[in-house]
Amino acid sequence: MNVFFEESGSFKAGSVLSRQGDAFQVELPGGRRTKVRAKDVLIEFDKPSAAELMQQADAAAQEIDLDFLWECAPDDEFPFATLGAEYFGERFGSIERAALVLRMHGSPVYFRRKGRGMYQRAPQEQLKMALAGLERKRQQALVQAGYEDELKAGRLPEAFTGSKALALLTRPDKNTIEYKALEGAAAARGISQARLMLENGAIPSARALHEAKFLSEFFPHGTAFPPVTVGSLPEDLPEANLQAFSIDDITTTEIDDAFSVEHLADGRVRIGVHIAAPALGIQRGDEVDAIARTRLSTVYMPGDKITMLPDSVVEAFTLAEGGLRPALSLYVIVNRETQEIVASETRAERVFVKNNLRHNTLDELVTEEALAAGTGDYPHKDDIAVLWPFAQALFEKRQAARAGYGLRREVQRNTDFNFYVEGEHITITPRRRGSPLDTIVAELAILANSSWGAFLHDHGVPGIYRTQRAFGAPTGPKRTRMQTNAAPHEGLGVTQYAWSTSPLRRYVDLVNQWQLIACVQHGVTAKLAAPFKPKDADLFAVVQGFDDTYTAYADHQRRMEYFWCLRWLKQENRKQVVASVVKGDLVRLEEIPLLLHVPGLGVHARGTRLQMEVMSIDELTVEASVRLLHVLDAPTVTSGSEAEEADEGEEEIIDAPNESAEGEAEAQAEAEFDGNDAAAVKNDAESSDGADGAVTHQHIAEPGR
After folding, report:
1. Do residue 546 and residue 559 come from a single domain?
2. What is the enclosing helix (H) or strand (E) of 11?
């Protein structure tokens, strides 16, 4: 005897070996034996064999007309045998019985299972809706198959044009037929979805995809600003009797800092560091603050930027030339003979900015030699002649402090690069770093950040500090972090350091400026009037949110700089390049700021110049492959101490993308710590303005390093 039975939701047939009570010992066609309860047996039969029954029942089930079967079924629950006699008539044998069970069980749209061998037909309205749904799915499957065929053939379906293509790669709805077709086509081709879309012309370039991915994650609602109203300035804001000037790149529009020099009696000068003061017109919790706190920083990348503040706010507070601008000013009185600071003062005021000087036009004129000889003709020549020795003295003072922390002198890099993007064309030009103008801006900014950090601490007002201290021995690894209480920054050689000089571009600086203005306006009661009180939980939240976001922005900038370096190699059709060894298998190209790993490079001394062949460039994955052709020349052997210092300097630049003189000094100082904390250095670049198609930076590293 054979039985047709249900087991674990499926139907099987087998030969009965024995029976004990209400249980059968059954052998399946494949040889497996199983125990079947009598209540699970739907059909008992002698012929045909179990295997033949299943084969013939499957075929017969496909021939059953479901619509007619549904018409024959009663409204109430019924055993399958009842409907079988109605549908098949006299030829209702074991094969037909099994076929009927298989057909009804496999058609839940028509028949609902109500128990072993029991069914009920679906109500008519529900059946119509279910059939309509099945038809829609069938039509969608046909459309999906058509999309997939077109994509595999290298054609772009109409549904994939426009913004739809980028959306499928950045924020896809995986339930759509477009995504499923893309996924299937990419799998069939054996390539990534992004590469398939690029090859089919769905996205204009790899650059567009990289930018779209960043925007979808950090600016999902777009980069436009809602309408905002700029707050009014205090009516009693005094006016400074001086003429200030700024020093920036030609493309800078968010001008944060300016300087002034006043000659006093007894060989002294009053040097002013004037910082744009948006905190005078933005209140904590207002609509502009909400925008700034969401963005936390201006985003820079070659050829573009996304500002932290709306244009109307930037225009109201940037230190543009030719007018009175609100500023927070640090004044230091300096003995010109010793270059020592004898007094200092902080004021909130209006400052007249006479000139916006630009590196592009002055760097060749304002050299160390020209300053020593007093030659050249340029605006604020006498003021710069005063600031230059003062900046040198500040630098030397920091180096002495670094020595006290067990650190060597900072190693200056002499070459930087400017990126100029026009459409899809890139121009990368070298720029000298460590110039007198760079040093002046860097040292005065560090002075302001350090002095204002002490100013907050002395008033008992919390701020956001950047600290770097050794763990363990004085010469142990350094760790850079942000915190709300003052502590030394050993890398910079200062007792405390609070970012305060870029309030138009960094939210941390805006927060510190609010706190500083409270100190200026309220004196000893400042900690009661400051927007952020001691141990304010919201201040800790700002620190954490800024650190994470600023790191992500810096990673995107580095990735795009790396992308444009690769684009330059393709654009200039460079099949061979000259590079120098940084360390191990890491080399740096001479013409552009690009670092590459070269597997199998071999052992070469640091600084060895190599002729390299460019094997491949992939803008989509932002990767390049090069191989060594031959060694051009090896570096001159230096003494032990000099070699150590060179090593130190090279380590400093591997992961430090910097855009301004201040940022270069910060990152170089902060890079001198254990390599495992390389991420900290990436956060320390002082982002300079990159509007109108140009961004400057110091060095870039491979994505993910």
Report:
1. no
2. strand 10-20
